[in-house]
Amino acid sequence: MRSKKSTSTPTKLNITSFDRIPHLTVDSTAEIDILAIVLRCGPQKNVGRSHHRCREITLCDNQRNQFLFTLWEDFGEIERHEIASKMATEADLLVILARSIGISNYQGLSLQTRYNTTVRVNPNYPQALTLLNWAKENKTLLLHSPSENTSTSSSIAPMIVTPAGQQLISIAEISSAPYMGLFYVEAEMAILAEFQDFCVLECSGCKQKKRTKDRKDFECPKCNRTTSLVPRCSFQIDLIDNTAITTASISAELGEKLLSMTAEDIFDMTCTKRQSLSLQHVHEMRSNKTFEIQLRKSSWSSSNTTNATLSILSYMEKQHTPQSTTDRTCKKIKPLEITEVEVMPTTAAAGPPNALGKFEPPTPTKKV
Fold it and tell me: What residues does the Replication factor A C-terminal domain cover (predicted)?
């Protein structure tokens, strides 16, 4: 049976902060308590072979860290309905206290309910009231909407803003990090592999990717109905700092924003018209600029080998302070050339850090 909600006198909560979660050991028995702001409520999903019902909500703390919180089965109906109803009728953002929740690293670090989880909306604790007041003052910033050019057919991921003061890690150190989770880097962004598809087709219902470029309706075995395919922006981008180069995936509205194109436009150009995507404007816009990037390191297994991949959750151009007169007279530091940095593969077999092999970066295709 599910636990009853506590009616005890409010006291100071013993909660886990969001910035600690990536450093915790993920196991089947670990449980934490969190206090967070609710930004968005997602639709119902049916996942796995047993088609378990769930709904995802996007949570945020007062450092603008975000996590997806999966509400399984009854939690997705009862608690999610209460949250969605309050969000629709109240002007301010909500705060929830979720106790005894689990941490999952399936397809990236996230949070999820357990059988003994309890979820309270706007609880009467001093810490909750403080967070509520902060959410009121920063509501516009927290609910920053994506570009009008964003395709509404894309599977929308949370727009995560890199919090100020987060600990940065170099690209060379990411592969040796002993855990999966979130990382923050400062790096330049480039697209060395120019002849990518830049988009994939996925089922409009379950969002499962299909290995085809034909958008005709089909019988989806997972949705168990006739459905259509919709394009979703997805491609590989190279991240460069003064220690190494690595490749990460970027998708949905983040990829559309970087390319200044919608997924529909990308599909029409690359698949319907069978033309190469012009990236000259992307190269010009990103040239000699440094970005604050939030990455998620995930793992997957194949043939008894564990592999790691990187995906971009957010990025923003680093704001440089204006140079003083003295600074302008100083000699400028020469940008590091691609041939001068160590190159790391994005996907590598798990093992000791020194086991990573080195390889030369691909030679950019010469344009005619």
Answer: 196-310
Maximum distance among all alpha carbons in the chain?
73
User: What pTM value is reported for the model?
Assistant: 0.49
Helix (H, G, I), strand (E, B) or coil at 282: helix
48-96 residue pLDDT tens: 555 678 888 889 898 888 888 888 888 888 888 888 888 888 888 999 9
The DSSP code for 349 is B
Alpha carbons 179 and 174: distance in angstroms, whole number: 10
Residue 367 vs residues 65, 168, 220, 279, 280: alpha-carbon distances, Å = 41, 36, 41, 11, 11
Tokens of 175: 């592969």
pLDDT per position as a tens digit, 214-232: 788 878 887 778 888 889 8
The answer on pLDDT for 165 being more than 70 is: no
Give Cα separations from 210 to 50, 204, 267, 330 (angstroms): 21, 11, 14, 54
Query: Can you read off the two tokens belonging to residue 286?
Result: 């990103």
Cα dihedral 284, 290, 295, 297 in deg (nearest 10):
90
